[in-house]
Amino acid sequence: MSNTPTFNVLFLCTGNSARSIMAESILRQVDPRRFHAYSAGSHPAGRVNPFALELLEKNRMPTEGLRSKSWDEFAQPGAPRLDFVFTVCDNAAGEVCPVWPGQPMTAHWGIPDPAAAEGSEQAKRAAFAEASRTLLNRIRIFASLPLDKLDPLSLQRKLDELGKAPAKGELP
Questions:
Q1: What is the pTM for the complete model shown?
Q2: What phi, psi does 53 have (nearest 5°)?
Q3: Does a structural domain hold residue 171?
Q4: Is residue 13 among the annotated active site residues?
Q5: Which of 52, 64, 115, 150 is the most exposed, fewest CB within 10 Å of its CB?
Q6: Which one from 31, 36, 97, 137 is the annotated catalytic residue?
Q7: Is 116 marked active-site?
Q8: Is residue 169 part of a domain?
Q9: Cβ burial, residue 76 (10 Å; 0-12/13-18/19+)
Q10: 108 in helix, strand or coil?
């Protein structure tokens, strides 16, 4: 039996239909043993964006159980105790970014909303691909951190720096 701690991670966004959903799926794929990934929104859309689902399925990322839900679910009795909360909304685009009160480590990893992309279906798919590449890069770096060995101040600094990490590479 492994002594590696398991961490609960919540990705937040306003609508919980694209960016936070993709982040949940990506973390579930990157390191399912060390992390339990969740997503939620302050004003959930009530459905997962079809372009997000298409991208995840095309790249063989986990989609089972993904749904658009309110962050209120994580404030209820019996909800998982959260270790990390990352907002992935892009407040530079004028969105209202949810703020999670409480004890988890938090950071803002703003990403432009691919659901707001205009133009052809190809242009929309490109926006989703760019958002997912950025999330994948940040999540891979996050998952590689020695979380149980970093002091809280150093860890917070690294989490904040990750919010500025660009997209690199392709989805697996």
A1: 0.90
A2: -60, -45
A3: no
A4: yes
A5: 64
A6: 97
A7: no
A8: no
A9: exposed
A10: strand
Q: Which residues of the chain have pLDDT under 70?
A: 1-3, 91-102, 168-172
**Catalytic site residue 97?**
yes
Residue 170: inside a domain: no
Q: Rg of the Cα trace of the chain? A: 15
The 10 Å Cβ neighbour count of residue 59 is 17
The first and second tokens of residue 150, run together, are: 């970093």
How far is the CA of 81 from the CAs of 16, 97, 141, 149, in angstroms?
20, 21, 23, 20
3-state secondary structure 38-73: EEEECCCCCCCCHHHHHHHHHCCCCCCCCCCCEHHH
Distance in angstroms (rounded) separating the CA atoms of residues 108 and 93: 14
Catalytic position from the list 10, 12, 13, 159: 13
Q: 73 φ, ψ to 5°?
A: -60, -25
Return d(Cα 34, Cα 139) in angstroms, integer: 13
- Is 52 part of any domain? yes
Catalytic residue among 89, 115, 127, 155: 89
Q: What is the spatial distance between Cα 5 and Cα 18, in angstroms, rounded to a whole number?
A: 28
CB 17 within 8 A of CB 115: yes
Strand partners, 10: 38, 85
In this structure, what DSSP letter does residue 15 have? S
Question: Residue 152 maps to which CATH number?
Answer: 3.40.50.2300
